Amino acid sequence: MSTRGHSNLPLTMRAWQYTSTTTGLENNLILNPEAPVPTLSSKYGDSEILIQVLSTSLNPADYKVPELGLIVRAVIRTPATPCMDFCGRVVAATRTVDTFRVGELVFGRLDVTQHGTCGEYIVAPTKVCSSVPAGLDSDTAASIPCAGMTAYQCIAPHVKAGDKVFINGGSGGAGTFGIQIAKALGCFVTVACSSAKVEQCKGLGADEVIDYTAVKSVSQTLKEGGQVYKLCVDNVGLPGDDLYKAADGYLLPEGRYIQVGGPMSFASLKSAANNFLRPSFWGGGSRKIELFMLKGSQTQDLDQLGKWAVEGKVKPVVEEVYAFEDLPEAFRKLKTGKCAGKLVIRIARKEDRANAVSP
């Protein structure tokens, strides 16, 4: 294998693993103290780095995808390690890597894979990584990638300064980033959230907050303001919700509706299918609708998000930081759907977290 880096790397590591998700991922996780450390590609030309993970953060997809059962087993071999987001230190690289150096702090997001980020080491393609900017700590950096890039790619390509944006679900990971990104781009931002999260959303910069517990219908409240919104980002996606069907009444004619979140259930799939397939003359909506998927240059997007974080324009909201050993409890908290920001897991041992802020 053509690599460079430390020659005294361990052969095994601590990693959370699962072989089944029956009764829930959180109830099937086992901490393996001797999981094999993943290895860099031996193929000539592959640009990969081996990373000692310092911190990760949780996203709903981290449990929703594994819990798809047989559908995902065809893609992910078990025992598998969950999670996608990471911040860590480069400890080795393939010879073709010239963008990152051994010892550098990087952050990014893996695709869902057998070797996720809840282990002490991961292998990542350089195209999904970015250097941690000076002054950013590992917990904060690890909270950015998935939720931050989701919000950025949902909003940035579709708006300009002065546009109005509506975000359904403003208090979760993608929502808290979405509010701040839209404001950084000069937009007027309206969000929907529960009464307990109203002040948080206002504090992040929301110009208008709809408390969904205090109104008869969010969609009706939006329609009363007329066709003024350039973009709707739906981070909730509840089955039976008429938010998209009603979008003709609050989105501009050229407005766009982007579906991000939603429960993994038959009812949700049926509701999404109706939104995408039912034409307007059969009771469907007529505005552009898109099911969000991450795309494009992740490095470039991470560079921008890191820059904004250091400048204070986008401040990642971390609700709670968990010890590595408490990962199942963190998943239980995530599954309540009541998180006001990101849940971060500290992976590396205390002695390995020294100097975990980029100089």
UniProtKB/TrEMBL annotation:
Signal peptide: none
GO cellular component terms attached to this protein's record: mitochondrion
Domain Enoyl reductase (ER): 24-345
GO MF, any single term: oxidoreductase activity
Domain of life from the UniProt record: Eukaryota
Protein name: Enoyl reductase (ER) domain-containing protein
Species the sequence originates in: Apodospora peruviana
